[in-house]
Amino acid sequence: MSVENLKNSLPEYAKDLKLNLSSIARSTVLNEQQLWGTLLATAAATRSASTLREIAEEAADTLSAEAYNAALGAASIMGMNNVFYRGKAFLEGRYDDLRAGLRMQIIGNPGVDKADFELWSFAVSSINGCQHCLEAHEHTLREAGVSREVIFEALRVASIVAGVGQAVQTTETLATATV
After folding, report:
1. Among this protein's residues, is 133 annotated catalytic?
2. Which residues, including other chains, have CB under 8 Å from residue 161's CB and lie 6 or more apart?
3. Of 43, 130, 154, 158, which one is the catalytic site residue?
4. What SS3 class is residue 177?
5. Which residues are responsible for catalysis (predicted)?
6. pLDDT for 124-174, tens place per residue?
7. Cα(32)–Cα(19) distance, rounded to whole angstroms?
């Protein structure tokens, strides 16, 4: 199992992350597509090749091809949108009258349940630190009838995967360092 490989690769100082990853992989709050799509999208957002590779392998066995691609699509489009909208927010409204002019068709037609895609976008936005996108996706999810518990669980997944990605990158970097 790939998540098992990921847990086993974590050093002793990341024991809390290992335990959190174990518990989140058994989540009963998210359905299987929500959980594995969130794991995959957030793994892509960490930019940790090893984290993405391990989670993607297991996600491919769990998700449909459409859901797998949509989760990666959520990570990709949020990579663009989070930078744009976070940067625009820093400019305190001075550019609010200008059109973004960015293609974002996957948001309107993700190929899976739109609420699931919004959930993955929400989780990725938390990793990428875009308050505007995080709030917008949370609002859309609540309007679609998604429970606070599901939204909060996706946030937990994002935080755990982000921490795991950081620990994995640290371990890999230090393995080749002369410390």
Report:
1. yes
2. 21, 39, 42, 43, 45, 46, 51, 55, 127
3. 130
4. coil
5. 130 (proton donor), 133 (cysteine sulfenic acid (-soh) intermediate)
6. 999 999 999 999 999 999 999 999 999 999 999 999 999 999 999 999 999
7. 20
Q: How confident is the model at residue 177 (pLDDT cuts 50, 70, 90)?
A: confident
Q: Give the distance, in angstroms, between the CA of residue 26 and the centroid of all CA atoms in the same chain.
A: 17
Residue 178 pLDDT exceeds 70: yes
pLDDT of residue 1 exceeding 90, the answer is no
Q: Which of 63, 124, 127, 133 is catalytic?
A: 133
Residue 126 near residue 158, CB atoms below 8 Å: yes
Is 52 annotated in the active site? no
Q: Give the alpha-carbon dihedral of 55, 123, 23, 26, to 10 degrees.
A: -70
Instruction: Measure Cα distances from 164 to 18, 118, 136 in Å.
Output: 8, 23, 26
Tokens describing residue 59: 């996600």
Sketch out the chain's domains with CATH numbers: 2-93+103-175 (1.20.1290.10)
Are the beta carbons of 164 and 14 closer than 8 angstroms?
Answer: yes
Backbone angles phi, psi at 41, to 5 degrees: -60, -45
Number of H helices, E strands in the chain: 9, 0
87 is written with which tokens? Answer: 């940067």
